[in-house]
Batch of 3 targets.
Target 1
Amino acid sequence: MTRKILKILSLVIMGILFATHTAAAAGWNPFSLDNIAISAVNGTAKIFTAIAASLASVFIMFCAYLVNLALELNASGNIVNSPTVQVGFSVSLAFVNLIYVIAIIVIAIATIMRNNTYGAKQTLVRLLISAVLVNFGLVIAGVMIRFSDQLMKFFLDQINPSGNFLDFTSRLADALTINKLQVTSKASLNSMVEADAAAGLTGLINIIVGPLMAIAMGIIIGAILLAIAVMLIVRYVYMVFLLIIMPFSYIAWVLPRAATKSDQGYLTSWWSKFNQWLLFGPVVLFFVYLALLVRFGQGDYLKRMVDAANNPNGPAQALLKVSESIKSDFLTNMMENVVLVSLLMGGLVVAKSMGMHGAGAAD
């Protein structure tokens, strides 16, 4: 308990000293009774805001690094050339080819005995088509995966022209940084002291809002990046699993049909899932690229929009009376982060939805 009290007192003292140094530079007396309290609150809030923003930035950097690893895992050639796929597909293909041999023998015996119970002639056509497709299945799937990888590489090159995955992580984390989302960073202590009671209350509210917004934005943006990383890892696992079981989906197409034609369901389901996860990667990277493009290019537009809202003759000024001391830089950065979060969240939803629609179109 004593240690906690000492830590709190240390933080307050550091805040006072930090605020005193800043105030001295601003040219006003920090030792008046009115200014000591403001200095303590503002200095402590600045330290807390800096700590909160730093922790949130570290969290975002970590999540961006996970996205980096997931993208590297899904990079061109890593799926088809994976040892798991090569070994697993070979074992599945060998087993399915054995079934094909047995099926041909059964059809031959049925034809010799003039037994057409299972539709030997129709099954033979399916069997031959299926045998050709399954033996070239990995090649066909590889062509489609490479096309998807080229789309992903295009957006990666737009985000990070150097092609270095570490540079991609740094650029992504830099674009999503929330260090600028601090309302007290540019506030003048001198103006806060001279403000009236209403402005002082608003200033106090802003001091409290700054750290909370930094933490909230850090958690939200980091969570979205974490979700993107997890979904990309799931994509890799799903694609590997689908490639391994692909021969069994083709042999199911040859088996005797039930009355509901359920034999076609396995192959259809396989292609549906394959197309769904095939499209997910390029679509989600498109929205990441769009989010970064907007992040780096929307600042001037949002700045003008906020300045227009702060126009004393404008209709929106009445709504901003309660927040007179909130600077346009803070509003601009906050709006940029809101747009960024919306694009990243929308990218996840749209990528999943487009994958499903693409799979449905293939069906």
Target 2
Amino acid sequence: MPGFIPTIIGTAHNLSPFLILLACILVVGLLVLKTSGKTELLTPHAKKKKRPLGVDGLIYDATPLMTDWEVNFFREVKAVLSRDLECFTQVRYADFIQVSEDYDRYTRYNANKKIFGKSADFVIYNSRKRAVVLVYELNDSTHSRPDRMERDALISSILASANIPLIQVKPFEERDIRKDLRMR
């Protein structure tokens, strides 16, 4: 029996092809496992958790709150804010603007409906005065579409009526944010 193993494996100089064959079989086996969806056997920590459905039976994905441009602009604004000013992102206009109480309920409701689903990119808020003092809108190429131009005109007129300054920023436009904040 002592000569049995060397005859199966071969002599020492034939050992290299045997190891290469063994490695190939191992690689092919791993590829088969990977393509058949059985990778959790190899990497259980990478297994995705089963996600619960919403009450409507749909699965929801989290999305980024801001684009890269918005993140960079946000950092620039935050860097120059005084102690009494705060910057909030993606604030619904309906949360800080409403039609005057001088109008009847039906008129107010219909007018407010126009802004319910719309949000400001950046709202500068004076915490001492408890008031919105400036709104920034970052206007990328989508703002040249007719529907966006109509939306922008509506928002611009509503903010003007509420005496809240609006600054519309185009891509790559240099802004003196300190100067913007002084004009408020």
Target 3
Amino acid sequence: MNSGFSLRSGHDQMICGPVPFLYTQVWFQSSLADLMVLNWMGMSLLSRNSMKHLVSRFIAFITREVIREIHRLNGDREKPRMKIDMNALVNDLCSPQANASLQRFFAGNHRFIAMLSERNRRAAANTYDFIDEAMPHALFELNQMAVIASRSEDIMRLDGHILDLGVYKGSSTRNLAKIFPSRTIHGFDSFEGLPVDWSHALKGTFGDMKGIIPDMPANVKLYKGWFDETLPLWLAANRDKPISLLRVDCDIYSSTRTILTVFEPVIRPGTWIVFDELIGYRGFRDHELRAFKEFIERTGFKPNFVSYGLTYAMLYLE
């Protein structure tokens, strides 16, 4: 099998484990197919730094999955190390050879590619219509947490609560705990998955936690349950301060509406909001964005968008 890129010795990202080369090559090539699709369909327009960051995040995810499987199959035996050269990988991923390999791979399924391409083209056009209208001067930055960190002093001027709605496995919540080490991060999730169907995910998606609460740093408090049950109880005990940062990662309209409705009394001018899935996919106007527009119309707040990525957007209210 030849995907147009290779694993080489180098630095930056490391996968550890007793993995035969052939297994690693096949597994890794297949896992990067989605990134190749994105690149072939237009992601090569991203800057090199943005592409490198996207690949780095993808590799970090793959690394965890590979290590988990290694441990399952091989126990705790001593593990030789293999390194991935990030610069070489980005060069290979963006290369003509990779694109040619991908085209050959999908040559027998051109209708699928045409449909996927048109679907993504329409979603992108719809997204950029909204961006031009609502946030023409906002920064495009893939790394959401880097933007939050860069604005941490502005966020804390309100001296209020920091909330993460949609904890899932806890990656973003842990990052917030690092960015704001002296503050308590309040995280909310059912840990049971989506309560209803989303635009491209069925009810129960993201439910692989099966109700299990992930381990968190000492400055994180987690609240397990559906938002319409947990948020009013939290608000009743925490009305003394406004919300400084509200991070919304619940995807669907009904949950976003619940969040903004319940927390309306403690959302003030100067509150920062991050919506993780505000834009960037087919049907985005029907979910987090719809609930936010209703909130703005109801309250009269003015949103000031600071940055956006492939799906997220960050703003503060006036």
